[in-house]
Structure formats: structure tokens, C-alpha cells
TrEMBL record, chains A, B:
It comes from the Bacteria. This is Putative oxidoreductase. It comes from Rhodococcus wratislaviensis NBRC 100605. It holds the Pfam family 2-Hacid_dh_C. GO terms for molecular function: NAD binding; oxidoreductase activity, acting on the CH-OH group of donors, NAD or NADP as acceptor. The keyword Lipoprotein does not apply.
Amino acid sequence: MPDPCVDVLIASYLEQDLVERIAGCDPRIRVSYAPELLPLPRWHSDHVGVPRELTAGEHDRWTSMLRTADVMFDFDWRHPERTLEQSPKLKWIQATSAGAGQLIDKFGLSRAPLTVTTAAGVHADPLAEFALAGILHFARGLPRLIAARQSRTWRKQETTELAGRHALIVGAGKIGSRTAELLRCFSVTAGGVARNPRPAGAPFDSMTTTDRIAEHLPTADILVISCALTDDTRGLIGRRELAALPDGALVVNLGRGPIIDEDALAEALSTGRLDGAVLDVTSTEPLREDSPLWTADNVILSPHSAANVPSENGKVVDLFVENLGRFLSGDAALLNEFDFDAGY
Amino acid sequence: MPDPCVDVLIASYLEQDLVERIAGCDPRIRVSYAPELLPLPRWHSDHVGVPRELTAGEHDRWTSMLRTADVMFDFDWRHPERTLEQSPKLKWIQATSAGAGQLIDKFGLSRAPLTVTTAAGVHADPLAEFALAGILHFARGLPRLIAARQSRTWRKQETTELAGRHALIVGAGKIGSRTAELLRCFSVTAGGVARNPRPAGAPFDSMTTTDRIAEHLPTADILVISCALTDDTRGLIGRRELAALPDGALVVNLGRGPIIDEDALAEALSTGRLDGAVLDVTSTEPLREDSPLWTADNVILSPHSAANVPSENGKVVDLFVENLGRFLSGDAALLNEFDFDAGY
């Protein structure tokens, strides 16, 4: 008796060689991929893209592809909130983002009889790179060097260094760990903050739990937010927490905007109490028009694009192919399974 | 019979605790230190400082300190070219800079019956940090992010990354090696260029010699100059060499300005052929007033200050104390002995 086929629907744009890698990884896999029915990517590895108007015929084709899918690579771009009715056979969705919690809530998939795996880890390298680019920018006084060049000033002087500082990293997952690893290359010590107690160990010199964060803020020359947005982390870094940081501290947000009180942050930056902020995310995105962050010269602001690197799709597909093998053999848990209770 | 005393003259400003470390490292050492006779440092670890007018009495005191010195920490700030006559007992000078070649020529000390040790290595950490700050600045598109914030533009888009690039590092000494080490943390491969053949090995993925550099330029996404200025390296990176680099390459100079043809570099930057330059040194210092580099937005320009970090004096004294131990015991060669033939 032949093995049953597994219908894999690729629901966001992928390069052809990556589609072929998925199709070729097991003879039981039957890949459905119709890029002409998907949003047009605005860059390599854009998983949102510009939505298309589908004709009635195209609509029917997409609907029938959804109906037969056992596995989806990314969520349905049209009506994700109807996933359960549209795709009755669906067992598993491989998301293409690390922080899928908000999507899953929005799509009404919480506690669905469905496995969702996230792309956690895929973005660790580019996000940690961005963090270091921003941290070094301020730690090495690049704003001053740029201003001096523009005003044609040559003045030899003392410069500050990154080595010897201490970082507190809230969220000791893959993004936080990779950031800690890079910081340690520069002789920066890293304390990790996790939801549940765990022993210290590379790349973290020490570990604490989220509820004890207040004790550790006064020594955090660099505060890195790399956790998921949950009920526990929303507003975690408020006015009081920012005030507890040492003078001249740097704040990095790689997680989600609402984890930090953005008004309090903007204030501490404008008075010079904090040296700089490195933000890939903001409370509302796009950043609201009247935000003082637009004019803050000590802010590096990225429009939630720091992980949008050309290598992203290849890494998501690496993860997906590994997970497909596990899914088909059934003898190992899928990597990055979304935990509906924890919310990440 | 008691051991003879060794008269150590500290000839540039040092913090008191560091002076005491030197004085305390061996009972035979007699330290002379009169900060009131030395140039006033403009920052921590400034070894040039603002010269003082000495009274006749002060002049005599300084002259007699020079006369009895067996060892000097830094060169005489007043008449280094008269060192041999002023300090007839002098056997060794510990310099406080890594590139002492030009000073030694200027002071007429070449082939003097004198040992000079450099501070090579002391500046490796801060210079490599500066290199990475500048490389990440361009590799991660920070100029575009800064401009977008200033024009209040939020546009999600693809971003470039550092990982996966290749660097060619001309000068595989301590500064080049530390830069390679940091680049490798970011998954950048590093080829090293040395004067004489040597086997590849961490932190270099490959090694070549200075005369074969042309073969390696076309694959150098990042060109780092971290060698000494000698007859062999003056003008080493000319117009032709810059033209051989790939489009969008980055150029970093941590060595000395005259190693690169600065006009050709400015031209390649202004046309956008090269993505950016990260310069701690320029052909003439201060940079000449009509240099196009002042207005080049893709240049990070440091006024030869990237190594001027507060931790510098402590590291030079670590080295000096180690060398004093070797000098007194006589059973090991001094570290960083200046090679008058090689010129570094």
C-alpha cells in the first residue's frame, strides 16, 4: 500500500529553488504553489506583500488549494480567521515570523486543533547584528564623529568603548541569546532574563526571572528587549524601570513596541539621561506622526525591517524541511511549536 | 652585595595608582615621576598633551631626571632627538603607541644602541571595536535609517546584512587579528595579508603575502588596513587596487593614512562605487581643509582617536610591568621589541 500523500500549500511567495527543495525532500510530499495567487513581495523574503485582486476563477483556485491542504507554509493571506472552515484537513501551519502570538489571536486560532510552528531563530542573526550596529553606534560615539565631519572639525579626544559594559537581556530565547553571544565577543557581560528560573550558562553570565528585573536594572549599561509580547511583558519597561537604569544607558528593542513605555523612553532620551535607543519596533507601527522619536538624534529607528534580509527565506525553508521530516516520521516533536498557554 | 637599582623615568602622564604599580613591581626599581614637568593630558591616556613652559629650575630638574634614567616610559617630550646625549645610561624606551616607526625615524634613534618596545596590542581592542562599529554602520544601512527618521519616513523594506561577507585584512598583527576575530563572530570570513608567508589559522581563514594582494582584492567585500607604514606599504592601496574591489565594498583604515591613495578613495566614495569608508587616519593629520572627505556622507572619520579609550593606560602599564620583569631577570626577550630593519 503506498504511503498517503501530504498536501503542502505554500501560502507566501518563495523563490523557485526553495519550492523545489520542499517538494524534493520526501516522495510523499505534494506541493501546491501558485505565486500568481499570492501577494506580490516588495523585497526578498517579504511575507506580507502587496495583496492582489483575484478574479472569480482565481478565487476558486485558491479556495480549492486551501481545501485540500494538510500543511501550510504561512497563513492564508485573505481570510486567516476562517482557516478552520476553509481548510478542514489542515494539521499544521509553519509561520514565517518569530512572534506569532498576535497573529494567532487575531486569526482566532487559539486552542484550535492545529499545530502552529513559528520561525523563531531564523531572525536571530540579523536582529542581533542590528542590535550590535546600534549599540556600537552609540558606544563608540559615531553621532559625534558624524557631526564633527559635517562641521569640518578635527579634534583629537578621548573616545568611549563598548568593552567592559554590562547588558541585561530580557528574553533569553534565540534572538536574546545570539545578541548576548555577540556582545560577549566584545567583552560585554550579559545577564539574561527568562520567564521561569533556569541556570546561568553561555552565552549568559547570569540569569534571573522577569519578576526580579528591578534588582538588575541599576547595573544595566545596555538593556535589550528580545522577549515576546504577552500579558506579562506588556508595559514591562515603564517610567520607573527606565529611571532605574544607570545614566548614559542604551536601550534596544527587538521584541515588540508595547513592552516599553514609549513616551517615558522619548523623555529620557530628550533630556540626555539615556545615551541612545535602538528600536526595530514601536508602540504603533508605523510610528505615530506626532512621536518625539522622529526628531530624536539619539535614536536609531528601523521600521520593523531589521530581520528582512535576503537570506531569510532560505533559513525559514531549512526549518520547514526539518519539521516536514519530523512531521512525516512522527517520531520527534516539531521544532518551535507555538505554546498556546505561554503565548509564544 | 645589594642588587643595583634601575632608574625608571615616567615621561608621560599616568594615574597615581598606575605609577604605584610600576614602583611596586620589583624592589630594585626606583621610579622618577614628576607630572608637574610633563605635558598636561587632554583626556585619559593622552600621551601627547599640552606642552608646558618650564622655568629654569624645572628645566634643570627634568634634565637631571633624564640624565640618570636607565629605562623610560615614553619618549622625552621636549627634545627626543637628543635622547642619546641627554640620557647616556638609557638602555630601553617603552613607547606608548603601536606604530613607533615614524617617531623613531624623527628622533634619529634608528640603529641606536637602545631597545625600543612598542605598545602594539594595547590598541587592538578599541581599534577593532571602531572598525566593527563603522562596518556595521554601512553593512546594516544605518545612514538610510537615520535619513528616513529625519524625513519622518516609515517604509518597511529589505535590509542588508554583514553575515556571509568576506574581509581582506592587510596587516595580520594584533590589530588585524582582533578585527578578524570580531568579524568571524558575525560569520564574516577573513583573509590575512602578511609581509612574509605564514600558514592560515584562526582568526584567519586564509593567508597571503603583501606582494600577492592584487589577486585577493576582487573578492574583498571589506578591505581592512591594519599594517604599519613602511616603504613597502606607502601607497599600497592605489587607484588600481581600489578599482579592483567589488562594487559596494567597504574600506577601513586603522593603520596610517599614506597607505591608501586618499584622492582615489574619495572619488570612489563620491561616485558610490564603494559603499563606505571607516577611517581613523588620513594622509595628513588634521585632514587637509579642502579634502572632499569632509563632505562625504559615506565616510566615518575619526581624528586618529579611536584608540584613545580610558582603559588604555592600564593596558600599557600591564605590558610595561611584564617587560620590566623580563628586563630585570634578563632571561626572556622583551615583548614588542621594535625591529629597526622591518620598521615596525
